[in-house]
Amino acid sequence: MDAPVDEAEAGGHPIYAQAPRSGEFNKLRKRLIRHTREALDKFAMVRPGEKWLVALSGGKDSYSMLALLLDLKWRGMLPVELLACNLDQGQPNFPKHILPEFLTDLGIPHRIEYRDTYSIVTEKLPVGATYCSLCSRLRRGNLYRIAREEGCSALVLGHHRDDSLETFFMNLFHGGKLAAMPPRLLNDEGDIEVLRPLIYCGEEDLQRFSDAMAFPIIPCDLCGSQDGLERNAMKAMLSDIEKRMPGRKDVMIRALGNINASHMLDTNLFDFAGLTCKRTAS
Fold first, then answer.
1. Strand, coil or helix: what is 113?
2. Which residues touch 42 (CB under 8 Å, ≥6 apart)?
3. Model-wide pTM > 0.85
């Protein structure tokens, strides 16, 4: 039987108007809020009075991120201005009406931008090639431009715990380096920050949250649906590890923030040549 519903939790921003009124959903909502607040605080993402461009793709992760940020703002815990933004990249059959209607109906400030990067990607790459890398670079460049035009100091992305872990293992297995998705970084020009406030949130929780909120999901027919991606292999591996040893994903994401440089092999991080042994006189 569900636990009693906290009336304060049942309310909030209009995006939660049709959310479930169950104890189970409240616990999920609170857990995601807790993880998001931890990332915002730990990595010093928030500077009061600034304006953030919240990238909205129409997938479960970006919808959930927008809802969680609006939740925190409604609670008085996020003193920044939020502007939702969707970049319509010209994919065939993209349902252009869904996001504008969703955002307008809820009174969420937004900007919809059309740039046909799909044609560029398909022209530059051979049939059967993986589009993700080029598509991502083109999308990011346009989002930086929009952020500047709108006076935003940060571009906020919906990458979560599992995305960061998958990137880590891709770099480990295929790139020969230890690197994941940083929670906060500066673009090359140094004028826009990239923030990932969901970095501690699990994909399974975000999926359950999105399903419960009944967001109008727009599937990705350009890159995410392509078969044979290295990322899919990492996702399957991590899923198997989590099934065999529940809780390992949370342990691994914490490990990325608990690095002992002297126990690695990178001479740029630790001065092995400078190690000296104090010898006692015989």
1. strand
2. 183
3. yes
